[in-house]
Design brief:
Layout: H1 4-15, H2 22-33, H3 46-57, H4 65-68, E1 72-74, E2 81-92, E3 98-108, E4 112-114, H5 118-127, E5 130-131, H6 133-148, E6 152-161, H7 162-165, E7 176-183, H8 184-187, H9 189-199
Parallel strand pairs: 2-5
Antiparallel strand pairs: 1-4, 2-3, 3-6, 6-7
Helix pairs in contact: 2-3, 5-6
Length: 205
């Protein structure tokens, strides 16, 4: 079964695309398919702009969550740590349209904590990939569980999806809310309720 590199090589040969020109040819083809002229003045630099934009939007493939979470501090703190209202954007893997919103994360330390700025950075690692919101939520929580080893992790994400707003059902005010509860956040109703109460003012506000 061919890998991605083999498939790209075959497509390049079939379409006679010069090496390093894949982005330009792909975007020019898309412009022609929608009925545009890629040679008109306003579109001449569009392939380069699209290349740079998509590389930025998918930078998470080139980031390692382990490196983000590799420094922890030994602190005698066993109460809940919450970072809420983390803005994020991502690209829906089904239509390559954006979805965006806010993320709320909590964990219960087990003798060590991580820098607060690490949590928004972790969100970026997974959000800047082609995603569905359900998987994105789970990946964030599981990464903290795997690399920080807390007693519990919770992640709640609320997002607006342009694939629902611009096409399909065209519902501009619909929002999707997803959650992932691990450890004590899953097994202890009291812990879960405390977290949800603390972030409730941020949801749908």
């Amino acid at each position: 079964m061919p890998n991605n590199d083999d498939e790209l090589r075959q497509l390049r040969q079939l379409l006679e695309i010069p090496a390093t020109k894949e982005w330009e040819y792909a975007v020019r083809l898309l412009l022609r398919l929608v009925g545009e002229d890629p040679n008109r003045q306003g579109l001449r630099r569009t392939p380069l702009r699209v290349k740079r934009a998509l590389q930025y939007f998918t930078a998470g493939y080139r980031m390692d969550p382990k490196r983000i979470l590799n420094r922890a501090f030994n602190v005698r703190h066993d109460e809940m740590v919450i970072v809420k209202d983390i803005d994020f954007f991502s690209l829906c893997e089904h239509h390559l349209l954006p979805f965006f919103g806010r993320c709320h994360i909590a964990y219960l330390p087990d003798r060590k904590v991580i820098g607060l700025s690490k949590i928004p950075r972790l969100v970026e690692v997974f959000a800047r990939r082609l995603q569905i919101q359900e998987r994105l939520t789970t990946q964030i929580a599981e990464a903290i569980e795997q690399h920080v080893h807390p007693r519990g992790v919770a992640c709640v994400m609320e997002a607006s999806h342009l694939c629902m707003m611009m096409r399909g059902v065209e519902k501009q005010n619909a929002r999707a809310v997803t959650s992932s509860m691990l450890g004590l956040f899953r097994t202890s109703e009291k812990t879960r309720s405390e977290f949800l109460t603390l972030i409730r003012s941020s949801l749908s506000s």
